[in-house]
Amino acid sequence: MTTDHRTTALLLFSAFVAVTLIITTWVSRHRQGSAEEFYTGNRLFSPMENGFAIAGDYMSAASFLGISGLIALVGYDGMLYSVGFLVAWLVVLFLVAELVRNCGRFTLADVVAARMRERPVRIAAGTSSVAVSVLYLVAQMVGAGSLVALLLGGTGEAVQAWTVVGVGALMVIYVSLGGMRATTWIQIVKAVLLLGGTITLTVLVLLRFHGDVNRLLHTAAERSGHGDAFLAPGLAYGGDWTARFDFISLGLALVLGTAGLPHILSRFYTVPTARAARRSVVWAIGLIGGFYLMTIVLGFGAAALIGPDAVRASHASGNTAVPLLALDLGGGAGTTGGTVLFAVVAAVAFATILAVVAGITLASSASVAHDLYASLRRSGGKPRSEVAVARVAAVGIGIVAIALGLLARDLNVAFLVGLAFAVAASANLPVLLYSLFWRGFTTRGAVWSVYGGLIPAVVLVLLSPVVSGSPDSLFPGVDFQLFPLQNPGLVSIPLGFLAGWLGTVTSTEVPDEARHAETEVRSLTGAGAA
């Protein structure tokens, strides 16, 4: 792009940041002193508003940039992410949404601790929630670095590094000043912008091929260099048995992980009733379903119009496929139309990243303040306000996410989110389901379930090809790879469920029938819910 066009792009790109900071500043003038206000916005959002906010929270950089990029590079196999992310919401709708809204108050640990000894359960669940959130944040940081480096016309490490630092600083400002109310409105605005941008690009791609989807697919296959194999399963996950098991592992993580994501669970506390929570999910499924169908068109459109080689040359993992597609659809590099469309898409993608990191940071800082701090602080001293602790925690989590984002900047963002989903499905989902549905579940079972899924998931990732042993690893110069799969879900998810069962059957604790009955009635009817 020319200097003038880059200036235009940067002005459009900066507009959303300005709008979101105005929203945050306006909200910060309202009283944010109570935990209820800071964590849930006083539960004043309607099902439609919360549905748009959930969609805004869920349609992350992994969805917009990563999935389309993977489809552009590996075709059919990249669609697994689109299908997995969408199907996961059926688990949320039928098993989690209403029950979590009725049983909890602010965090996942509230649901589990309702019938267990609070301290060990809150420490375990809080630790797990922070681990999942940080992994998810890293993916958003990587997406931001790739996007802004492309926007500025450079792919140097310094540009990406400063972008990651800038995103981290913005997310801390959003959460510290605005809390849930500002975060929710940022997510709603972002969801509208993202859907509008995605619809526009999808229509332009289909118009380029005169509405002939068959022609679009065959053109993508021809330019891919793989022929019809580009449109069939197996290009990425069918080479050998290890790849096939990786396929199964990733599918399990995507389908089961959503119900264990802390920032998604926290959204159910922002509506007044369980019925509103369920209606929120219905709204979210409609919005998210339409979006993921369009990412498939964008992925194959990038393969057909840009070509996998050009996408890979811009970013090895395909994270810049959609911005490059927008540039081409608008008229190409050097044209005003191409630059404006590119800048709009870049601004929308950046809005996506900012909104998601704000939601994740709020959820993880809530876990630190409401679960970890409240459980670990020494008695006798003057306790600090939960909200004050949450604001400090947001800063600490931001620093950790920035550091890891700098380390992982060359990985595909959809792939990174797949790892976060695997940890969520391994550590959070088993304890959540056992707490809601198993009458005999005990405190030991809850603690073992969390750590029995969390520790294996993290250790297997560290020992996988993601970290070492291959040219695409985080540390390509060393090799301590012992686990062959890139996603640990196939092993760590069953281990989480097994550990919860084993901890319960070996526990000498007698399950509290009265508290279980109370939790069951509350989860099903909403009686006594906050």
UniProtKB/TrEMBL annotation:
Signal peptide: none annotated. Keywords: Cell membrane, Membrane, Symport, Transmembrane, Transmembrane helix, Transport. It is found in: Cell membrane. The chain crosses the membrane at residues 6-27, 52-73, 79-100, 121-139, 159-177, 189-209, 247-269, 281-306, 340-366, 387-407, 413-434, 446-467, 487-505. It is a multi-pass membrane protein. Its main location: membrane. GO terms for biological process: plasma membrane acetate transport. It comes from the Bacteria. Pfam families: SSF. GO terms for cellular component: plasma membrane. GO terms for molecular function: acetate transmembrane transporter activity; symporter activity. Belongs to the sodium:solute symporter (SSF) (TC 2.A.21) family. PANTHER family: CATION_ACETATE SYMPORTER ACTP, SODIUM/PROLINE SYMPORTER-RELATED. This is Cation acetate symporter. It comes from Actinospica acidiphila. The lineage of its organism: Bacteria, Bacillati, Actinomycetota, Actinomycetes, Catenulisporales.
